[in-house]
């Protein structure tokens, strides 16, 4: 047997088919022999046998042949499993990996397209909001925040200072004009 032939699809298929067929034939022969041996031993008494001794003896001997039949049947199934596993794990693996990689790339491109669409939509809304004139009464300056958030007094006087007592050089009130009339 050429060992290198086992690593091809045709070589392994031929080997497993040969082994499977041999085990199937052996299993059939073991089953037939078990039936013949059991029948013959049930009909053959031995001096000193009690009631059912012939049947028990026949069953014990035939049971071993039935175990051989079962083992050969399992070996035939394992030969088929060998070929199926080889095809699945060796021959078809590169193709499955290529398909998985294509799906992975497709999902990645789909995510990137979705993110791009979300960013484009956000930018469009921002541009639209910045370019549309807001309806304001003439001569007023829009405030960044409502007047209730800008306190005219120094906010640092409301809380006790940390150790050291340093005061910041500027406050938030330096960036916003003081309220009118105060």
In brief:
It contains 3 helices and no strands. With 182 residues, it is mostly helical.
What string gives the helices and strands in order? HHH
Distance between the termini: 106 Å
The helix-and-strand class reads: mainly alpha
Rg from alpha-carbon coordinates: 45 Å
The low-pLDDT segments are none
What count of helical segments does DSSP give?
A: 3
List the quaternary state of the chains.
Answer: single chain
- State the helicity in percent bands: 55-70%
Which overall shape is indicated by the principal axes computed on the Cα atoms? elongated
**Care to count the β-strands?**
0
Describe this structure in words.
This protein is mainly α and 182 residues long. The chain is 62% helix and 0% strand. The protein contains three helices and no strands. The protein has helices at 9-43, 53-91, 93-131. The radius of gyration is 45 Å and the shape is elongated.
